[in-house]
Design goal:
Pfam families (chain B): Radical_SAM
Catalytic activity (chain B): [PQQ precursor protein] + S-adenosyl-L-methionine = E-Y cross-linked-[PQQ precursor protein] + 5'-deoxyadenosine + L-methionine + H(+)
Pathway (chain B): Cofactor biosynthesis; pyrroloquinoline quinone biosynthesis
CATH topology of chain A: Arc Repressor Mutant, subunit A
CATH superfamily of chain A: Coenzyme PQQ synthesis protein D (PqqD)
Largest interface: A-B, 24 and 24 residues
CATH class of the largest domain in chain B: Alpha Beta
Order of helices and strands of chain B: EHEHEHEHHEHEHHHEEEHHHHHH
Number of strands of chain A: 5
Helix content of chain A: 40-55%
Shape of chain B: globular
Strand order of the largest sheet of chain B: 7-6-5-4-3-2-1-8-9
Largest sheet of chain B: 9 strands, mixed
Strand content of chain B: 5-15%
Strand order of the largest sheet of chain A: 2-3-4
Radius of gyration of chain B: 20 Å
Number of domains of chain B: 2
Distance between the termini of chain B: 37 Å
Helix content of chain B: 25-40%
CATH architecture of the largest domain in chain B: Alpha-Beta Barrel
Strand content of chain A: 15-25%
Order of helices and strands of chain A: EEEEHHHE
CATH architecture of chain A: Orthogonal Bundle
Number of helices of chain A: 3
Family (chain B): Belongs to the radical SAM superfamily. PqqE family.
Enzyme class (chain B): oxidoreductase
CATH class of chain A: Mainly Alpha
Structural class of chain A: alpha+beta
Oligomer: heterodimer
Largest sheet of chain A: 3 strands, antiparallel
CATH topology of the largest domain in chain B: TIM Barrel
């Protein structure tokens, strides 16, 4: 289970790509694809191997958002992506 | 789905060749295999990749036959990489060695899907007509992992190897595989020809379903398990290819353009062929691609069914093969008047025990069709 101490990274064979024709961003993986909205994309791009807690703290500060809301949203997003095989975690 | 919502496909599946060192009895290639002399050239495959990227397709699956039987595969992978396409190699693994894999990795290959007929040579050999395949596949798996490429292990299931599921998943877990497909054979092409010999029993299926459920819980977050059942045992049909001509475009070895790799059995449709037709013309303008797209073509009760935009009416090839009419209900649907008859036959076949397998071969169409 993911916690604020966990770190996540894109699973091998997964990449974030701009879908030019449909004007959106997608996570591409083996025989699967996930459409990512602007918020999810931002979170993925800011994720640089720091703990999820540290990532949330910096996002909360930058966007003046309540930390507990950011933590809930990011954990939910990363959990879904992990279960679908797009992310790996330590 | 209306015409105004028609968007380009997400992925293109290239059946580069029908040549393959294996002769699997469940192969979904057509009975009339395309000879090497009719295959498209390297330049033509590159032009197809150009068009796919231009249309907005995101993924390319290199398939076959055995795609590694094409000497130009690395060139095609490199071309796909330059175009920003996500590339997937669907392979038996038996032609893979360290040097060839290094070239493919260098070309930018993103992912390898490696198929197994189980881990027991005594079971796999009669199914595939290939001696020593398991050892070769295990060696291929080692190579792919050592090269650091993303890997999916595809376990193709029939009555003969269904009992190996637990062993197969244990092997995948021990090897740290992130994604496994537990893929019951679908009964098209050679698979349909051999259905009486291959289809598992419902008891086997129940055991598999229970195992997959258990395993998914155990490996959550480490290993993703995709599970495909033989649709004869489902109540509703599968959304074939995510809906006819909605997500995928297939190119056959000779350039024939199809919404699904089995669609050539629908001989009343005139499928376009590259290079006479572009991919975009086939997708957006051809009557064959429009024939079963969306819901407008559907008969009753499909057109009034709550599931019509989930299963898109199931599979047209199966409707033709099993009910004799491509325009009617897919008989695996419990609402089809042919359902009982079709499913009863499959259940009976599943109890037949050892039935001789007809391994795929190039001469079939000429001698028997």
């Amino acid at each position: 289970m993911l916690t604020l101490e966990s770190t996540v990274r894109l699973a091998p064979g997964t990449r974030l790509q701009h879908d030019k024709v449909r004007e959106r961003w997608v996570l591409l993986g083996p025989e699967r694809m996930l459409i990512v909205d602007d918020m999810a994309r931002l979170i993925l791009e800011r994720n640089r191997g720091q703990s999820i807690g540290a990532l949330c703290a910096s996002l909360a500060t930058e966007y003046a958002a309540p930390l507990d809301t950011v933590q809930q949203d990011v954990l939910a997003l990363f959990t879904t992506m992990s279960e679908k095989g797009f992310l790996r975690h330590d | 789905m209306t015409d105004t919502a028609l968007t380009p496909p997400l992925a293109v599946l290239l059946e580069l060749t029908h040549r393959c060192p294996l002769r699997c009895a469940y192969c979904s290639n057509p009975l009339a295999l395309t000879p090497a002399s009719a295959e498209l050239s390297t330049a033509e495959w590159c032009a197809i990749l150009d068009e796919a990227a231009e249309m907005g397709m995101l993924q390319v699956h290199f398939s076959g036959g055995e795609p590694m039987a094409r000497a130009d595969l690395p060139e095609l992978v490199a071309h796909a990489s330059r175009l920003g396409l996500y590339s997937n190699l669907i392979t038996s693994g038996v032609l893979l060695n360290e040097a060839k894999l290094a070239v493919l990795a260098e070309a930018g290959l993103n992912h390898v899907q490696l198929s197994f007929q189980g881990l027991d040579e005594a079971v796999a050999e009669p199914l595939s007509g290939f001696k020593g395949g398991v050892a070769k596949k295990q060696a291929a798996l080692d190579l792919v992992q050592a090269a650091g490429l993303a890997l999916t292990l595809n376990f193709v299931i029939t009555r003969q190897n269904a009992h190996e599921l637990d062993a197969m998943l244990s092997y995948a877990e021990a090897r740290g595989i992130a994604r496994v497909e537990v893929a019951n054979t679908q009964y098209y092409g050679w698979g349909l020809q051999n259905r009486a010999a291959l289809i598992p029993s419902e008891a086997q299926l129940d055991t598999m379903t229970a195992l997959v459920t258990e395993w998914r819980e155990r490996v959550k977050g480490r290993m993703v398990i995709d599970y495909v059942i033989p649709d004869y045992y489902a109540r509703r049909p599968k959304a074939c290819m995510g809906g006819w001509a909605q997500r995928f475009l297939n190119v056959m070895p000779d350039g024939t353009l199809l919404p699904c790799h089995a669609a050539q059995t629908l001989t009343h449709l005139d499928f376009p062929r590259f290079p006479a037709s572009t991919l975009a013309e086939a997708w957006f303008d051809s009557p064959a691609f429009a024939a079963y797209r969306g819901t407008a073509w559907m008969p009753e009760p499909c057109s009034g069914c709550d599931n019509k935009e989930k299963d898109w009416g199931g599979c047209r090839c199966q409707a033709l093969a099993l009910a004799g009419d491509a325009n009617t209900l897919d008989p695996v649907c419990e609402r089809s008047p042919k359902h009982e008859q079709v499913v009863t036959l499959a259940r009976r076949e599943a109890q037949l025990g050892d039935v001789p397998l007809q391994l795929r071969r190039f001469s079939y169409a000429m001698t028997e069709a």
